[in-house]
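re: that chain from earlier
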Amino acid sequence: MQEKSIEFDVLTEIGNIGAGNATTALSQLINARIDMLVPKVDLLTFNELAEIVGGAETLVAGILLSLEGDVDGMMLFVLESSAAHLLVDQLMGISSSYSKEGKGFNDIEESALKEIGNIIAGAYLSSISSLTNMLITSSVPYLSVDMAGAILSVPAIEFGKMGDKALLIESQFKDLDVDISGYFILIPTIESYERMLRSLGL
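^ sequence. v structure.
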């Protein structure tokens, strides 16, 4: 039990540092000062993940990257649709006076979202790389705007056979105008997870 507790503490620390790096990158990207509340870190099943992001039927934007190198798996950055619109507006310097709840994204907005996902996931993964001294590369980001249950079913099907837990880092970004909750979901294969812990001396 003690060993599991130490592992979880280390994962929490990785989550904190990764999310901190991602926040700095996001702040530079949208040219606004962003504070981050202390991330909540948890190991959850895929069913629990859907509930955390607002329920299986909540409309979300999911940016999915495949991980390669010393760590195989997936990383998913999930934002509620309204939060994703806010981030895109910030990036593009637009201030929207109407709610975009339930609305989709045009091609330019989709490109902006992929760029946001790419940069903050890259910052996140680079901090894990530095901490573990492992090489982690990621694929071109794939963007999907759909219900949370549908988006989470992709990694669930892919990795369910290897393990049913994912590392969730819930990050709340805060600037002067808006609070945006984002969720980093790291889904390493079991072998990669063990490799990460070994590299940290656990």
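The chain has one domain: 2-199.
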